[in-house]
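Risk register update: the risk of archive-format incompatibility is retired. Evidence:
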Amino acid sequence: MNTTAPEGLAEAMTGYRYPQTPLAWEEAVVQAGRLLAPAWPQEPSAGASTALGAVALTVYALAHARGVRPSEVSADTVLDAMDEVDVEHEPSGLKTLLVNELPAAGHTGDNDPLQRLRLSLIRRESFATTVDVPIDLTGGLTRCPSGLAGAAPWIRQALQQPHGSRG
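Archived output:
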């Protein structure tokens, strides 16, 4: 893989470097950037930036759960964590991992930046409507998809790029 980060990736990574977070978080952001670099878009993309945060948080949680360094978490491991989805196509297994591992790693409270990132990724808003909408018109969804569910297809595609993953 090219050792130079694609244009825009370094800037996106900077957005996830929070003060007073452990070194393992910094390593998780770097590993997420490494994993996503082959597919990083040439034009700025909010979706790719969201995906970077989601993958970094996943790498961090998986590293903590397995007792390894974030640099040891592979694309395949991240993809495996995303496999379990619920009936609304929300990555339920990954949400459970994040809910369990962030507090176990000492991230508690509303002011913790990793908890705030987790909440921003899993939050699901109600549909913006003042009347009840038949469920068949919503594609079976009861609420808007989370940012994590929205980013998941791009993440899956990006992690399956040639760099030793499932592809």
